[in-house]
Structures are given as structure tokens and as C-alpha cells.
Amino acid sequence: MRWLLGILINAALFIALSGYFHGFYVENIGAAVMSSLVLSILNILVRPILILLTLPITILTLGIFLLVINAITLVLTDELMGASFEIDSFGMAFFVAIIMAVVNLILQETVFRK
């Protein structure tokens, strides 16, 4: 249930961010939900491998490099989704990753706290 709620929250965040930034485009709500699902699957399958491969630099930067890994998974989502989900540059992906991290942190501390 929590996983599904996270997907819906990320989809709503994708829609909101695409309205504010010109370098980030989501075609419709269906594409936002699908891209959020793809991102979730990439976070389950690919993200742990990327974290293992970049562990020394992640430790060296005290975990800040994880934002770069999040941006990479967003770029991979862009590639897999095609024209319905577009991120113009890696800088925009990095910026979206920062916003998503902050929003998810706030939601974890308020909504998901038991």
C-alpha cells in the first residue's frame, strides 16, 4: 500500500514539476503514473547496482552523490518512456531529483511516520 501511495505521490509531483519548468515535460496523468512506476522499478533494480559501483565517491561526498544517482535513474526513465516523459538535460534531471528528495523526505517525516 505504501509503495502504491509513493508511486501516486511521485506521479503528482511529476505533473506539478512539468507545469513549472520548461525543461521537464509529462504528456498526461497516465504518462506520469507510468513514468513513476518505471522509476520505481529502476530504483529497485538499477539503483542498488549504481550505489555499489559508486560507493567510494558516495562515502567521500557524505552521501550527496546519491542525488546524482537519482538523476541518472530519472534520465533512464526518460529514455524508457519515450516522448511522453521528457527531461531536456542532466541539470534538469538533477534539479528534479533534489526536489523529489526534499518532498519525499518531508512526506516520510509527516505522512508516513508511525
TrEMBL record:
One short Pfam family name for this protein?
Phage_holin_4_2
Read off the PANTHER family from this record: SLR0284 PROTEIN
Report the protein name in the record: Phage holin family protein
- Top-rank taxon: Bacteria
Residues spanning the membrane: 28-46, 53-77, 89-107
Q: Which UniProt keywords apply?
A: Membrane, Transmembrane, Transmembrane helix
